[in-house]
Automatic annotation (TrEMBL), chain A:
PROSITE patterns, per database record: ABC_TM1
Homology family: Belongs to the binding-protein-dependent transport system permease family.
Highest rank taxon of the organism: Bacteria
Subcellular localization, as worded in the UniProt entry: Cell membrane; Membrane
Biological processes, Gene Ontology terms: transmembrane transport
InterPro entries on file: ABC_perm_TupB-like, MetI-like, MetI-like_sf
Gene3D superfamilies named among the record's database cross-references: MetI-like
GO cellular component: plasma membrane
Organism of provenance: Texcoconibacillus texcoconensis
Domain ABC transmembrane type-1, residue spans: 26-222
Name of the protein in its database record: Tungstate transport system permease protein
UniProtKB/TrEMBL annotation, chain B:
Organism classification: Bacteria, Bacillati, Bacillota, Bacilli, Bacillales
Keyword Nucleotide-binding part of the UniProt annotation: yes
Pfam families in the cross-refs: ABC_tran
Transmembrane residue ranges: none
MF terms (GO), sorted A to Z: ATP binding; ATP hydrolysis activity
Name recorded for this polypeptide: Tungstate transport system ATP-binding protein
PROSITE patterns: ABC_TRANSPORTER_1 (PS00211), ABC_TRANSPORTER_2 (PS50893)
Domain ABC transporter: 4-236
Domain of life: Bacteria
Entry keyword Nucleotide-binding: yes
Keyword annotations from UniProtKB, A to Z: ATP-binding, Nucleotide-binding, Transport
InterPro entries (UniProt xref): AAA+_ATPase, ABC_SmlMolc_Importer, ABC_transporter-like_ATP-bd, ABC_transporter-like_CS, P-loop_NTPase
Length: 232, 250
C-alpha cells in the first residue's frame, strides 16, 4: 500500500513540476500517435469505402486480410517493420530504424486494418435502399461517397477511436523499431515498461496517468463530436 | 411525344430470368400504374425504367436518346426523381433532406431555399422544417420524400409502392395531393403497386405484370373491363375484394 501511495505522490509531483524528460516523452507520444492515426485515416477510410462500395476481383480476399489484420500482434508488425528497415533490409538505405518515423510506420501497420475494417462495416450497415435513393438523386462519384460517409459517420468515428486506442496502447512494435532511446524514440508505453522493470513505480505511475489522460481527452473529444452529430 | 421507351429488355439474376419486356413506351404526361402480384418483377421493372439498375439486354431510350445503362449521364438523372416504398431519411433535418437533391444538382442556395420552402408548404410539413428526419411519422416522412422529389422539378417521377406503409387517411390525403400536382406540372409518373385501388386512383394507364412479363397494358378502364386470360384471375381477385368490402353489393 505504501508503495502505491508514495508512487502516486511522486507521480503527481513530477507531473506538476513538468519534468523535462516526461514532457519530451509525452510530446513525442502525442506526435507519433496522432500522425500514425491521421495516416491510417487517410489510407484506411478510402480503402474501407472501396471495399464496401465497389465489387472487384480480390475484394473478398482483401476484406478477410483487413479483418485478420485487426488481430495482428504488434510484435509481429514490429518484427516485419524492423526487417524492412534493417541496415541490410529492403529499405535499410533510408536509415529509419530507431527513429520516430519507424514507430509511426509500425503504428500505422497495426491501426490501419482496424480503420479499414470498421469503415467497411459502417458503410455495409447502411440501408441499401438509402444508397439507391442517393443514387437516384444523381450525385457525382465524389458526392455519392461523401454523403454515404456522412451517413456512416457514427461508425467511422468509432473506427478512428479504435485505431487511436490501438496506437496509444501499443508497446511491442514501438519498442522493437524505436529502441526506446531517451530523447529520441522513447514514448510513454515503452518508458513505462522500462521504469517498471527498473522498479521505478513512481515514474511509471506518472507516465500511466499522462497516457490515460491523453487517451481519455482524445476519446472524449471524438465521442463528443460523434454524439453531437446524432443528438435529435 | 414519347419520353421513355424500353425495347427487348431482359433482366437475369444468377442465370434466372426475372424480367422480359418486349416494349413499353411512356408519353410525356402519362401516368402509368404497374400492377402485379408479389415477386412478379414490378420493382425490377421500375428500377430499370428509373435507370437505377441496368438490364441484362435491351434498349432504353429517354427523350429520343439511346441510353447506355451502365453509364447513365448525371444530367439525365437530374431530369428524373424516385420515391420508394419505405421513406428514405438521411441523417439530417427535414429541410436538409429536401434540399439534398438540389444541392447535388448544384442549384444555387437562394433558389434551393425557395424551392424547399415551396414544397414543404405544399406538402404541409413546413412547420417540421428544422426537425430531424428520424423524428417524423411514416406519413410525414413520405411527404418529405415527395417534397424532395418534386423540388427537383423532374420530367419523370418513379414511385415504388409509396403508400404501402401508410394508414388509410394519410394514404388518401397524399394520393389526392400527389395526383393534383402531377396534373398541374404535367409530370410523367410511373407508379408501382400491388393495390388496384391505388392504381385506379393514380393512373390513367395500366400495365399488368405477372411472372416477369407484361401480360396486358392499356387504359385502366379498358384493361379492367376486358382483362386477358392470364391477367384476369389477378384482377378478378381485386374486384372480388372490392365487392366483398362493399356492403351494398350482394
Amino acid at each position: 500500500m505504501e508503495l502505491i501511495v508514495s508512487g502516486l505522490s511522486e507521480a503527481f509531483r513530477m507531473i506538476i513540476e513538468l519534468d523535462r524528460d516526461i514532457f519530451d516523452i509525452t510530446w513525442l507520444t502525442l506526435r507519433v500517435c496522432i500522425l500514425a492515426t491521421l495516416i491510417s485515416m487517410i489510407i484506411g477510410i478510402p480503402l474501407g469505402m472501396l471495399l464496401a462500395l465497389k465489387h472487384f476481383i480480390g475484394r473478398r480476399f482483401l476484406i478477410v486480410l483487413a479483418q485478420a489484420g485487426m488481430g495482428l500482434p504488434p510484435v509481429v508488425a514490429g518484427l516485419w517493420v524492423t526487417i524492412f528497415l534493417w541496415r541490410s533490409g529492403p529499405l535499410g538505405s533510408i536509415q529509419w530504424l530507431f527513429t520516430p518515423t519507424a514507430i509511426v510506420i509500425a503504428q500505422v501497420v497495426v491501426s490501419l486494418p482496424i480503420i479499414i475494417s470498421l469503415t467497411y462495416a459502417a458503410l455495409q450497415r447502411l440501408d441499401p435502399q438509402l444508397k439507391k435513393q442517393l443514387k437516384a438523386l444523381g450525385p457525382t462519384r465524389l458526392q455519392y461517397g461523401w454523403f454515404l460517409l456522412r451517413e456512416a459517420r457514427f461508425g467511422i468515428v468509432a473506427a478512428v477511436m479504435a485505431g487511436l486506442g490501438r496506437v496509444l496502447a501499443e508497446v511491442g512494435a514501438a519498442q522493437m523499431v524505436g529502441g526506446n532511446l531517451l530523447g529520441d524514440t522513447r514514448i510513454l508505453t515503452t518508458a513505462m515498461v522500462m521504469e517498471v522493470s527498473r522498479g521505478n513505480f513512481d515514474v511509471a505511475f506518472a507516465l500511466s496517468f499522462i497516457l490515460m489522460t491523453i487517451a481519455f481527452l482524445i476519446t472524449f473529444l471524438l465521442t463528443y463530436f460523434q454524439q453531437r452529430q446524432v443528438i435529435r | 411525344m414519347t419520353l421513355l421507351q424500353l425495347e427487348a429488355i431482359s433482366y437475369q439474376k444468377q442465370n434466372k430470368m426475372i424480367l422480359q419486356v418486349d416494349e413499353l413506351s411512356l408519353k410525356r404526361g402519362d401516368h402509368i400504374g404497374i400492377i402485379g402480384p408479389n415477386g412478379a418483377g414490378k420493382s425490377t421493372l421500375l428500377n430499370i425504367l428509373a435507370m437505377l439498375e441496368p438490364p441484362t439486354s435491351g434498349t432504353i431510350t429517354f427523350d429520343g436518346m439511346k441510353i447506355n445503362p451502365n453509364k447513365i449521364p448525371i444530367s439525365l438523372r437530374h431530369r428524373t426523381a424516385s420515391v420508394f416504398q419505405h421513406s428514405q431519411r438521411f441523417d439530417m433535418t427535414v429541410f436538409q433532406n429536401v434540399a439534398l437533391g438540389l444541392k447535388i444538382k448544384g442549384i444555387a442556395k437562394n433558389e434551393r431555399e425557395q424551392r424547399v420552402h415551396e414544397w414543404l408548404t405544399r406538402f404541409r410539413i413546413d412547420h417540421l422544417s428544422n426537425e430531424h428526419a428520424y423524428n417524423l411519422s411514416g406519413g410525414e416522412a413520405q411527404r418529405m420524400n415527395l417534397a424532395r422529389a418534386f423540388a427537383l422539378e423532374p420530367e419523370a417521377l418513379f414511385m415504388d409502392e409509396p403508400f404501402s406503409a401508410l394508414d388509410a387517411p394519410t394514404k388518401a390525403s397524399l394520393m389526392y395531393e400527389l395526383k393534383s400536382i402531377l396534373r398541374e406540372r404535367d409530370i410523367t409518373a410511373i407508379f408501382v403497386s400491388h393495390d388496384l385501388l391505388e392504381i385506379e386512383a393514380m393512373s390513367e394507364k395500366l400495365a399488368v405484370i405477372i411472372d416477369g412479363r407484361i401480360i396486358q397494358k392499356g387504359n385502366v378502364r379498358d384493361v379492367l373491363n376486358a382483362p386477358s386470360d392470364i391477367a384476369a384471375p389477378f384482377l378478378h381477385a381485386w374486384n372480388q375484394l372490392k365487392q366483398g368490402l362493399d356492403p351494398g353489393v350482394q
